[in-house]
């Protein structure tokens, strides 16, 4: 999930729509609401956040260092002021990157992946048995051949791969794919997505690589 903070509701709604087209959940906050949320949110909720995007906010309203006290997710400033002084000020505040607007949503996602890779939180792909699972939106490969997947199924597979060796609950998968604030989608939709994903993987691999235990969740095995 991507969290964006901006004083303009129209901006946060616009990014929400754009990220949704890429199959990435997004939650928007006004600066005041965000400060209260980031200090009180549960650790499991913060682990669902892939990156924080800071847009137009009153100076001093958002502290990147406050965010970093709770999570290691990248903090990126979206800047409409194309000046060296403003860029330096943003970096001095503690952000990981400054992106000048306008910018394509895929560039933002690519920058997030690059920052996380440098921080050793993400790699460009994970190999599990015959599967190569990419973390940048590309379809996975099995024995070198692409396996086209709908975006939600692809994101679930990426999330399971990024938590390789750990079991994740249905709630954690849902939060990562749909966002922690999406009340219009039932959490049980995860079971449907995973069922379809397992069938496709089983057909290609000859076995089921997703281990599931009731009440405990899912993990990738091979």
Automatic annotation (TrEMBL):
<dbReference type="GO" id="GO:0032993">
    <property type="term" value="C:protein-DNA complex"/>
</dbReference>
<keyword id="KW-0805">Transcription regulation</keyword>
<dbReference type="GO" id="GO:0005829">
    <property type="term" value="C:cytosol"/>
</dbReference>
<dbReference type="Pfam" id="PF00486">
    <property type="entry name" value="Trans_reg_C"/>
</dbReference>
<feature type="DNA-binding region" description="OmpR/PhoB-type">
    <location>
        <begin position="123"/>
        <end position="222"/>
    </location>
</feature>
<dbReference type="InterPro" id="IPR011006">
    <property type="entry name" value="CheY-like_superfamily"/>
</dbReference>
<dbReference type="GO" id="GO:0000156">
    <property type="term" value="F:phosphorelay response regulator activity"/>
</dbReference>
<dbReference type="InterPro" id="IPR016032">
    <property type="entry name" value="Sig_transdc_resp-reg_C-effctor"/>
</dbReference>
<dbReference type="Pfam" id="PF00072">
    <property type="entry name" value="Response_reg"/>
</dbReference>
<dbReference type="InterPro" id="IPR001867">
    <property type="entry name" value="OmpR/PhoB-type_DNA-bd"/>
</dbReference>
<keyword id="KW-0238">DNA-binding</keyword>
<feature type="domain" description="Response regulatory">
    <location>
        <begin position="1"/>
        <end position="116"/>
    </location>
</feature>
<dbReference type="InterPro" id="IPR001789">
    <property type="entry name" value="Sig_transdc_resp-reg_receiver"/>
</dbReference>
<dbReference type="InterPro" id="IPR039420">
    <property type="entry name" value="WalR-like"/>
</dbReference>
<dbReference type="GO" id="GO:0000976">
    <property type="term" value="F:transcription cis-regulatory region binding"/>
</dbReference>
<dbReference type="InterPro" id="IPR036388">
    <property type="entry name" value="WH-like_DNA-bd_sf"/>
</dbReference>
<keyword id="KW-0804">Transcription</keyword>
<protein>
    <submittedName>
        <fullName>Response regulator transcription factor</fullName>
    </submittedName>
</protein>
<feature type="domain" description="OmpR/PhoB-type">
    <location>
        <begin position="123"/>
        <end position="222"/>
    </location>
</feature>
<dbReference type="GO" id="GO:0006355">
    <property type="term" value="P:regulation of DNA-templated transcription"/>
</dbReference>
């Amino acid at each position: 999930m991507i969290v964006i903070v901006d004083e303009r509701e129209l901006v946060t709604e616009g990014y929400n729509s754009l990220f949704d087209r890429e199959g990435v959940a997004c939650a928007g906050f006004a600066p005041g609401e965000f400060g209260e949320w980031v200090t009180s949110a549960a650790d499991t909720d913060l682990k669902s956040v892939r990156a924080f995007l800071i847009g137009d906010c009153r100076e001093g309203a958002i502290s990147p260092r406050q965010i970093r006290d709770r999570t290691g997710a990248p903090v990126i400033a979206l800047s409409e002021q194309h000046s060296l002084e403003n860029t330096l000020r943003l970096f001095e505040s503690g952000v990981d990157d400054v992106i000048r607007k306008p910018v394509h949503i895929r560039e933002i996602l690519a920058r997030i992946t690059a920052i996380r890779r440098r921080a050793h939180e993400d790699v460009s792909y994970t190999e599990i048995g015959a599967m190569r699972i990419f973390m940048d939106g590309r379809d996975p490969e099995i024995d070198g051949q692409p396996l086209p997947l709908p975006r939600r199924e692809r994101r679930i597979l990426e999330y399971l791969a990024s938590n390789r060796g750990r079991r994740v609950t249905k709630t954690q998968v849902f939060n990562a794919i749909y966002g922690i604030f999406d009340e219009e989608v039932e959490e049980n939709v995860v079971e449907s997505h995973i069922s379809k994903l397992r069938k496709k993987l089983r057909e290609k691999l000859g076995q089921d690589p997703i281990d599931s235990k009731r009440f405990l969740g899912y993990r990738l095995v091979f």
